[in-house]
């Protein structure tokens, strides 16, 4: 672990709760963690994502273990979205560090949580499915009809939908003359 990651973890543990030294067995996360700082609106967003991921898992006939991973990442990804964090610490990074300090050891889940806002080129399915669910959850107000159509396609063509979403997000940032995160570009390149 890098010095920056260790300092960040120590700071977050001091701010949000004590560190659990013993690694816990993998089990399903069924709600936001006790250390979460999320508004009612944020909690509703996460619940809609959980419902969408469960629907996709049923249609895709994924194993219970993979479903558990998807749902764990979902419950954790915005756990600190409404927290006041130190400058330079994203809510995803903070949530991943705190989850690790409280016993989450699945590297794929932690990576999905850490980079869910920008993507990551080395993600396994848990990161990709979290990214899709976050973008396509039905409570989002913009482009509802298009989002619903894409969500219905996910079980048959998750990578195709992912490429379509990423292409839209990257081109939107370019049109607005906004920087594109290097991890987003890496994620795009891993899909093409």
Write a structural description.
It is a single chain. With 192 residues, the protein is an all-alpha fold. The chain has one domain (3-16, 36-191): Hypothetical protein af1432 (Orthogonal Bundle). It has helices spanning 3-16, 40-60, 64-77, 91-101, 107-114, 125-136, 144-153, 158-175, 182-191. Helix 2 (40-60) runs antiparallel to helix 3 (64-77) and helix 5 (107-114) runs parallel beside helix 6. The longest helix is centred in the first third of the chain and has 21 residues, at 40-60. The protein starts with a helix and ends with a helix.
Helix content: 55-70%
> What pattern of helices and strands is seen along the backbone?
HHHHHHHHH
Q: How many β strands by DSSP?
A: 0
**Mean pLDDT across all residues, rounded?**
90
Q: Which structural class do the helices and strands define?
A: mainly alpha
CATH architecture: Orthogonal Bundle
Q: Radius of gyration in whole Å, from Cα?
A: 16 Å
CATH topology annotation? Hypothetical protein af1432
């Amino acid at each position: 672990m890098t010095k920056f990651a260790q300092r960040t973890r120590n700071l977050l543990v001091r701010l949000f709760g004590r560190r659990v030294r013993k690694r816990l067995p993998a089990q399903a996360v069924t709600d936001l963690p006790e250390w979460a700082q999320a508004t009612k609106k944020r909690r509703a967003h996460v619940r809609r994502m959980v419902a969408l991921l469960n629907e996709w898992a049923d249609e895709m006939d994924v194993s219970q273990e993979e479903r558990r991973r998807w749902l764990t990442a979902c419950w954790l990804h915005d756990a600190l979205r409404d927290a006041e964090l130190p400058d330079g610490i994203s809510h995803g990074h903070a949530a991943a560090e705190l989850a690790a300090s409280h016993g989450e050891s699945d590297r794929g889940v932690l990576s999905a949580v850490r980079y869910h806002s920008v993507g990551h080129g080395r993600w396994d399915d848990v990161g990709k499915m979290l990214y899709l669910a976050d973008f396509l959850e039905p409570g989002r107000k913009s482009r509802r009809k298009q989002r619903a159509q894409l969500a219905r396609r996910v079980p048959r063509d998750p990578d195709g939908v992912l490429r379509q979403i990423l292409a839209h997000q990257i081109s939107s940032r370019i049109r607005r003359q906004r920087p594109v995160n290097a991890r987003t570009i890496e994620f795009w390149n891993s899909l093409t």
